[in-house]
Amino acid sequence: MSRKKIISLIIAIVILGVLNSMAIISISLIFSDGKTALGITMVILVVLIDLVVLNPKYYAFRYMIPAMILLLILTFYPMYYTFEVAFSNYGTGHLFTRQQTVQKLLTEYFFVPENSQEFDFYIYDNYTDYKPSDNFIILLKRKSDEKLFLANKPEAMAWDSEGDISLAKGVMAPLEKDKATLKDQTFITDYDSESGNIVSFESNNKNYIYFYSPQDQSTKANAPFFYSEIRGKWLKNVEYTGDNYKLRLNANTLFTTFITSDNLYGLINEIAEEGGRVVQKNKIYNKKTDYILPEEEGYFIDKDENGQNFKVAGYIDYVGFKNFIQMFTDPKITGPFFQIFIWTFIWAGLSVLFTFAIGLALALVLNDRNMKGKKIYRTLLIIPWAVPAFISALVWRYGLFNETYGVINRFIIQGIFGGEPIKWLGDAFWAKIAVLIMNTWLGFPYMMTVSLGALQSIPSDLYEAASIDGAKPRQRFQKITFPLLLVTLAPLLVGSFAFNFNNFVGIYLLTQGGPAIAGSSTVAGSTDILISYTYKLAFEGRGQDFGFASAISILIFLIVVGISYFNFKLSGSFEEVNR
Amino acid sequence: MRKWVILLIAILSITALAYAEITVWSSENQIPALEKIAADFESDYGIKVNIQQVNFGDIKSTFLTAAPAGEGPDVIVGAHDWVGELAINGLLEPIPYLPQKDEYFPVALDAFSYGGKLYGVPYTTEALAIIYNKDLIEEEPTTMSELLGMATDIADDEIVGFVYNVGDFYFSYPFISGDGGYIFKDTPEGQDVYDIGLNNEGAVAGGKLIKSFLDDGIMPQGANYNLADSLFKDSLAGFIINGIWATPEYRNVGIDYAILPFNKITLDSGNNPKPFVGVQGFMVNAKSKNKLEALEFVVNYIGSFDGQKAMFEGERRGTAREDLFNVIKTNAGPELYDVLMFSESASIGTPMPNVPEMAPVWGAMADALGLIINDQDTVQNALDSAVDKILAQIE
Fold first, then answer.
1. Count of domains in chain B?
2. Which 3 state secondary structure label does DSSP give B317?
3. What domain range includes position B9?
4. Same domain, B361 and B389
5. Contact status of B370 with chain A (Cβ, < 8 Å)
6. Are residues B308 and B210 both part of a single domain?
7. CA distance to partner chain B, nearest, from residue A95 (Å)
8. Is the pTM value of this prediction over 0.90?
9. Alpha helices (runs of H) in A406-512, residue ranges in sequence order
10. Residues B332, B368: one domain?
11. Which of A261, A434, A521, B341 would disulfide-bridge B259, Cβ 3.0–4.6 Å?
């Protein structure tokens, strides 16, 4: 091997090593986040990349890597994810995994037991080099009888993913005869001779000086250090135990005192029988009432003081085919389904027909040799396509179709024809016409462009032969232009049909699916197509229902695949491609 | 190589210097006032408040995506009707303690309460009112009939008597609720979402009143927000229903307007139309690592009299604290006319429900209003269908 080759190999391996180590870190994070499917996708990708780079046999495939990455991340993973979500209740109220929710219940819910005690606190700090340090102790004063206790600097027990302390534990002991012993360390009190206040504690030749208390305005200058260095790091999630107490910062005084408190929820294992098998299930129970929380529809349900059930927290649950069954059995969904299905076909079909007819007609005109100023016309005719659909939809909605002030009613219907104003967006029939008009306007430039291209590809000798045979222009169009055009354009028409079948923007921006159907008790409006109806069901109901939306989108996907396959078969496009 | 070493040291020293900070997502208007309050907090606590500007319309949706992933801000400034959905998702931290609770308007605290817990510190309330052009309308009407009579009198080919975004439930609600229409029944345990009063006698009377605006030719067909607003700005409309956000623009274009709060006008029955009250406030992210600091900031610095005063001075909207309102009222000059009038209108309003079940109400009622306005169905039938739709969606 030449030196050059060795160097380039080393560089390749180093780059690969860096990439791999980065990948391992991110994959482990993804897995710990509970996103198994994405993790697996990433693992497959990394293995593929390594194989291709390291194994000479697969080296030829290296140009496929970018395509493979895109395919896996942007196509296969979203498909898999949609599939996974379709079998879950993911949505409003169910955003976290059960594990995350259990963790939250175990660590973030507290209750104050009966005969609770509240304590004022005073921080004493050990200065080093005349500066405060985060070596401190806390003097606690029981509010009921002013009895004093001392608490040490807690020890960190758990950290979060960013390295901050998520649980710290410390001990406390009563101050007796000016002394307190915490973990074999004795602290001796030093009083101010005049005021009689405790000014400092002494232990192992270290001096802890009175530093801060939220109750004492005179120590306010030390507040920033206390909040950022002492409380921010050590006391946020602290738990002090000793003398039969368990103390935490008291939320009900906004953390200016300590109070006896305990975790509200605990974990127990319950042995249950499921389908003849004995399984262990971890259950949450309320420590205050010893009530084991039942779980219904992905919620933990607890009882309040009046015995009323309430939902404590929800989690993402596997619901099997529930979303699919609901789709076919729930009358509020199935009721208007047939009507919407028919309209979706009409909408997609007519959209293709109108855009194609107008586009082709314009293309034929523009293709005429005698036509002057082709370029200007072509440019002007492309404009509807160049303007973003959501902008032109708003212009149509507010500027053109408005009943009183819209251009169409005011200047054309009333102005020129003297007719009654048309309820373009308020009447079911006219709203359908309105969406079709707008969609045709948006879509014909595309059809015109592709037709222009296809017209160029028709050999001109066919026309010469036809004119020698004495064929009229109409016959030429019928026998030569149209059949040959269709060969090229049929797949595009099928594609256009599939696109319009799911053309959410075309409907939603103009009419939002409305107007409402009189007397109907479902959300479906007169111009709703399947996809806009789905959107309403999933996202405009009570919050968001991603599970149900995914299930419907799988159904729509299957419908579109079926239609497209049928269309391709019918138009013979497969054969053309194979030939 | 040396460059790398220097860079590495620079990075390390930056991370070593990083100290705790809380992040607030706020829309543009509140930021100047917030910066002042944040500076006080910073000097007292030694914790930086990082204020990020997010479009009001994007705060809730972005928060819903970011917060579950642990990426969200510690505090958001938003509307009370987000509370139900965010709380049920476990994304809002209850406010455990709010000093001087009695000094707040009860409607503001109710608006931020869900399931018996307070989920935000309110700072402003707002409600719609009727605004009229003094050049076209000479005398202030005291009843709706009077108003409609005046509107008819001034109308001609160009000028419209009375116009507002009639197809939108938010704008038409005052008439629906005036004679007893309600969305969800209030009970001692909160709102009963299965008891819907949008097709009762009062609501139907309101629907008929709205229909009469169009049937009698007082209001043009196809009125929407922008149309109504621009007609009023061009001095082509006598009366409009709009909120406090619209008046600066009216003043700028030179319209001599007056505000007629809903408590000063009655329906035929003698009742006042009741507008929705929208409340804005500060909410704390339940997934935040800096919950303690965020709660302290929100309760002690935003919730205090001085904090609320600073917020008011930054953006002159109706305030959520009664004691502050009284101070403002006694010292008010003509520049506070708008605020006081809209606050009066809010005083008889009902807070927009904050339960997640409210979401389908908007669509269903927009459908019903569309049917009524376009004469596609009777008022009773249209409202019955709306209630059926809402019930079907919240079950």
1. 2
2. coil
3. 2-125+277-351
4. yes
5. yes
6. no
7. 7
8. no
9. 407, 428-456, 460-468, 473-476, 482-501, 504-508
10. no
11. B341
